[in-house]
Specification:
- The chain is mainly α and 76 residues long.
- It contains 4 helices and no strands.
- The chain is elongated.
- The N and C termini lie far apart (33 Å).
Length: 76
């Protein structure tokens, strides 16, 4: 998910994509090492989920032509 949001953030300048790209790997390290208590980890995961939901909603309403890119590659 982090790589997809990074690519989309780079292409469409979606700031939450950059944030997800930075926070998600940090969350995986924190979760794996159990540095934070479960309640804090759950809150961290909730923030990531909300950012991904916000990212998705913003992406849904973009015109489909933005995702196609070079249309000559698909013409026959």
């Amino acid at each position: 998910i982090s790589f997809i949001t990074m690519k989309e953030a780079f292409c469409f300048r979606l700031i939450e994509g950059y944030i997800i790209t930075l926070i998600l790997p940090i969350f995986i390290i924190v979760f794996a090492t159990r540095i934070l208590p479960p309640y804090t980890t759950a809150s961290f995961l909730m923030v990531i989920g909300l950012l991904i939901a916000f990212f998705t909603v913003r992406k849904i309403f973009m015109p489909i032509a933005y995702d196609i890119g070079d249309k000559t590659a698909y013409e026959t």
